[in-house]
Every structure is written in structure tokens, then in C-alpha cells.
Design brief:
single chain, mainly alpha, 8 helices, 4 strands
């Protein structure tokens, strides 16, 4: 997979997402159609797959997707969603999102989790200067290291939860799922957001431990040559905001848009600033080992 070709493919797929929605509108295809929603998800997955291939490598990307797909699926199937499962924070999926795992959780749901988790994983690593020039590194494992990783996982969870400020109300309005007991955030239980943070943090920690065992790290696209393609995850993050914003208008739940814009916009700005502030000079490491 050549560097220039893969970068162009990522950009083309991003453009295709926009064209996809425009054509759907021109052809009067309901945005709530199952095949339309899944098609959009697969386009996002294509970009993330190519991006992850370049920052993690084929094998480590496969492990990431296995972990990022399995953990949310187990949580969802067990009605866990963190501590929310203990306080009646349970949702029921309709048939809108296609076939379900053991008749309960649509297979596409953990795929969306995996796509989103990759974006937040990368964004968090940029914020904390944990993306390097090369894969190989040696880092001392200690209690301090573990707590640092847990803290980073919580930050990743907050980025994910900000995403759900618009996702959940929109998808409920579309009829993709419903909450049994409702909740205080436009019908969404507050405990749902604790679940997003917890699932994200657990996934982040598990995969970080895997990378430590492999003595590897996520790397910048372009290596020693500065490349803005690394920041494509932020573009995807904000593109998702636009897509759900369109759905919010379509489903007449526009009131959730400002909350998502404020939180997601803030995280996006932090990531971009940190990327350009901390990018290493040629031949220098991103961070030193303590």
C-alpha cells in the first residue's frame, strides 16, 4: 500500500460520504433506510481502516478491531453499559440497523463503536504526545504508568461521550433504539454517558497494555515528514457531527446540536493545537521515557 495512493483513497472516501448524502437527497432516499445507514458506516470504516493500517500496521490494527468490537459487544449484550445496567439504564434495539447478535444487539453497533474508538484513541494519543516517529519503543511499566493510561482512557471516554450527545437523541428519534425508563437528557439516561466513558476507558487500557507487551506505539502518518493526514481522524470526528446534525434537522431534534458542537468542537481544537505544538523535529522523539 503506497503512501500517496492510500492518502488519496482516504480523501476520496471522505468526499464520497458527502456525495452519498447529496445523491440520497436528490433521489429522495429516506435517510432512515437500513441500507443507507449501513452504507454510510462502511464508508467511515474504509477511511479508518486505511488510516489505522498506516499508524498501527496490519496486525496491530486487526487486534485493535478485535478488542474494540468485542468489548462493546459484550457490554451491550449484557445490558451493562457500565454501572448503568445496575440502575435500569437499558435500551432495546429495533430492526432498523439490520441483523442482530443472538437476536439482541445489531452487528453494526459494535462496528460503529470500533470506528469511533479508533478516532478517539488516536485523538487522545495526540493530546498526550504518545504518537511516535517509529513503532519501536521501550517504556517502564509501573503503577504510575498504569494510572496514566487509565487517565488517558477516561479522557478518550469523554471525547466519545461528547459524540453521544447528538448520536443518542437522533437515533432514538429515528427509531433505531429506545430507552426503557427514559432519562433527563432529552429522554436519554445520564448513566448511559457513564457507560460510554467506561467502555472507552476499558478498551483504551486493554489495547494500550497490548501495545506495551508488543513494545510498539501508534505512529505519525508520514514518519519523520510532517503529515496532516494523521489529523484525518479529527476530520472524521467532525464529519460525523455534520452527518448527525443533518439527521437531527431531518428528525426535528435540532436542540441537541449546540451541545454537541460545543463539546466536540472543543476537543477537536485541543487535538489540532496539540498536534502542531508537539510535532517532533526531524530525527527527534515525540516524548522521552521517564
Amino acid at each position: 500500500m503506497q503512501k500517496m495512493n492510500s492518502n488519496i483513497i482516504m480523501i476520496i472516501l471522505l468526499v464520497v460520504i458527502g456525495v452519498y448524502f447529496v445523491l440520497g437527497n436528490m433521489l429522495n432516499i429516506p435517510r432512515s433506510e437500513t441500507f443507507f445507514i449501513i452504507g454510510c458506516i462502511l464508508l467511515f470504516f474504509g477511511i479508518v481502516f486505511i488510516h489505522g493500517w498506516k499508524t498501527l500496521g496490519p496486525r496491530d490494527l486487526l487486534v485493535f478491531f478485535l478488542i474494540a468490537y468485542s468489548i462493546p459487544l459484550l457490554y451491550e449484550y449484557a445490558n451493562g453499559l457500565g454501572f448503568g445496567g445496575l440502575v435500569g439504564c437499558t435500551c432495546i434495539y429495533s430492526d432498523l440497523l439490520g441483523p442482530k447478535f443472538l437476536g439482541k444487539v445489531p452487528y453494526v453497533i459494535p462496528l460503529v463503536w470500533a470506528i469511533s474508538l479508533y478516532c478517539t484513541f488516536t485523538m487522545t494519543n495526540i493530546i498526550f504526545n504518545r504518537i511516535r516517529i517509529t513503532h519501536k519503543f521501550e517504556e517502564v511499566v509501573s503503577l504510575q504508568w498504569f494510572f496514566k493510561i487509565v487517565g488517558m482512557g477516561i479522557v478518550a471516554g469523554l471525547i466519545m461521550a461528547s459524540w453521544d450527545l447528538i448520536i443518542d437523541p437522533v437515533m432514538v428519534a429515528m427509531g433505531a433504539w429506545s430507552w426503557i425508563n427514559g432519562g433527563s437528557y432529552y429522554g436519554i439516561p445520564i448513566w448511559n454517558y457513564e457507560g460510554w466513558i467506561e467502555i472507552t476507558a476499558v478498551t483504551f487500557v486493554v489495547y494500550s497494555i497490548y501495545l506495551r507487551i508488543q513494545k510498539k506505539s501508534q505512529v505519525y502518518i508520514g514518519g519523520e515528514k510532517r503529515s496532516s493526514y494523521t489529523l484525518l481522524v479529527v476530520v472524521l470526528y467532525l464529519t460525523a457531527l455534520i452527518v448527525y446534525g443533518i439527521y437531527a434537522v431531518y428528525e426535528q431534534v435540532m436542540y441537541v446540536i449546540p451541545w454537541a458542537v460545543m463539546t466536540m468542537g472543543s476537543f477537536a481544537v485541543i487535538v489540532v493545537i496539540q498536534f502542531y505544538r508537539s510535532y517532533p523535529k526531524v530525527g527527534k522523539e515525540v516524548f522521552s521515557v521517564e
